[in-house]
Amino acid sequence: MADGFPSTIGILIDTSRNGWGGPNRPKALNSTPTTPDTYVAANKIDQRFFRGDWCNQNNAGIGAVPQAQPFGASDAIAAFVWIKPPGESDGDYPTATHSHGDPHCDPNGTNTDNPNGSGNVHPTGSFPGFDIPAGQFFPAEFAQLVANAFPPLS
Fold it and tell me: Could you give the 3-state DSSP secondary structure of residue 68?
């Protein structure tokens, strides 16, 4: 047992939206920042303002295609999978005409990184201009996921 888990348990990684790509993806390590915070900010691949931002993220891309044992049979990563189908909306947001929905999906809304964070307020990072209910196909997001795929889809 290693760190509380048997070494025989494999890990699945959902790569359906973790491929942030496009023209703004870092192409090389930026070694010029002089503090840890500026170094991380200059080199991070996950460009969300806050890790808790999850709803229909703008500028997301499809990641690696599903694959069993991407690093070989002896590696703990058992597979890359697409648990959430690319292009399926995470949810809509409350408006004057419907009060149900998730405020995290509002592109004009904010999230607070509490209770375990710093208490900072961040934009949701949600795709602007659309209010698509959860589970419905979201064509504009799908097109963006394909355009920003990393590695690029061929």
Answer: strand
